[in-house]
Write a structure and sequence with these properties.
Length: 401
């Protein structure tokens, strides 16, 4: 198909030209004596993205799932109690990983479209008189349903109860896109990946670990080798890695972090909220609804849009791709066929979102869903126009790129 369309799945996201240039680099010596001059500042600046002074960052050549496994096996022992909630495909998979690793999971099943049930967590933690629960899991952004949960509320709960359990956060589709504060929220392990807010191809699992979790690592007896923190701690302190690192990805990560810090993290979060709100205005104009049950759950990185009864959201996404070259997210597991998803995270702006809204409208109308042509685009357009920063029309024009 002629032309080029950006993808609007909730990861991998579009890779900016500046990062693609950084990825296109010759092979280099991963043990070169000057490598620490590159790696040590990168590890330090990643801590700024996680908003931590005391935490330690680890980078693995893996997807976010590898970072999940590293997080759990390095800090827990088989049989340890883990409190978790299942409200989407990715929170489900995290629980599945914990169960397969031999942890004793308290599995709180939640209606898909809601988030972490703080009140139910409170019941379990208050009943845990012997303080056997070692880990409390929070999926900050459930990609399958477009639901964001309140991490800070879980930390307040733990503090109010004086419970010593460590707080683990899946931030794969939130960190570097949605506000995340590791130190302020008392997060002990935060997991992310390269292919979403970091605007890179898939291939890096990135996590940050508190000093409390590093102390727990010394006692944890889960079997591990490739993902062992100990090997990384020993090598990273001098700016190296315990295996051959994916240097081209690290070069891209350097530029990604530069771009995030240049824009300013608060500006990044505000941009994501604004882009997401335009999509939500479009959904309202279509007469449709989000999978997220209440505004407090609304995600600023992905909108899961319910299709009317009798229609198949996965077929809408298929038609959009085959007819218009537009990549939309499909429904997964319990919501398969019930919705399609628009990913709005990473490197994007208003015109890119208007593109996906127009393509989604065409695909839905082609499929027979009764929406008014242009209604969603118009609603988003008015919102973006009304919230755009003022510009000086008499200012000197920027040089053409």
């Amino acid at each position: 198909m002629p032309g080029s369309n950006p993808i609007f799945i909730p990861g991998p996201t579009n890779v900016p030209h500046r990062i693609r240039q950084a990825l296109d680099c010759p092979m280099e010596d991963q043990r070169a004596p000057d490598l620490p001059a590159f790696t040590l500042p990168l590890l330090a600046d990643l801590k700024r993205v996680f908003k931590t002074d005391s935490g330690q960052v680890f980078i693995y050549p893996s997807s976010g799932t590898g970072a999940w496994e590293a997080a759990m096996t390095n800090t827990l022992s088989p049989g340890d109690k883990v409190l978790a909630s299942r409200f989407g495909q990715f929170s489900h998979l995290w629980i599945d990983l914990c169960q397969r690793q031999g942890f004793d999971v308290i599995d709180v099943d939640v209606e898909w479209g809601e988030g972490v049930p703080v009140e139910i967590y409170a019941e379990h933690l208050m009943a845990d008189k012997a303080q056997e629960i070692k880990a409390v899991l929070v999926c900050q952004n459930e990609t399958a349903t477009g639901v964001t949960s309140d991490v800070a509320a879980v930390r307040r709960l733990l503090d109010d109860l004086g419970h010593p359990a460590m707080l683990y956060v899946d931030g794969v589709s939130s960190i570097a896109s949605i506000d995340f504060r590791m130190d302020e929220w008392g997060v002990d392990v935060a997991v992310s990946g390269s292919q979403k807010g970091f605007m890179l191809p898939a291939g890096l699992g990135i996590l940050c670990v508190s000093q409390k979790a590093l102390e727990a690592h010394k006692q944890a007896t889960s079997r591990r080798c490739y993902f062992d923190f100990a090997d990384h701690i020993k090598a990273n302190v001098d700016g190296f890695f315990p295996y051959t690192p994916a240097m081209h990805m690290l070069r891209g990560l350097r530029v990604s972090v530069d771009m995030l810090l240049e824009e300013g993290l608060e500006n990044v979060f505000a941009r994501h909220h604004r882009m997401a709100e335009g999509v939500r205005r479009a959904v309202d104009a279509w007469g449709l609804r989000l999978c997220a049950k209440e505004p407090k759950w609304h995600s600023d990185t992905v909108s899961a849009i319910m299709v009317p009864e009798g229609f198949d959201g996965n077929e809408v996404a298929k038609l959009a791709y085959l007819r218009y070259g537009l990549s939309l997210g499909v429904g997964l597991s319990k919501v398969q066929g019930k919705l399609f998803r628009i990913g709005h995270l990473g490197d994007l702006n208003e015109l890119m979102l208007l593109t996906v809204l127009a393509g989604s409208e065409m695909a839905m109308r082609d499929f027979g869903i009764e929406i008014e042509a242009g209604s969603g685009v118009a609603a988003a357009e008015e919102y973006y126009r009304g919230t755009a920063k003022p510009v000086e029309l008499n200012a000197p024009a920027a040089a053409a790129v």
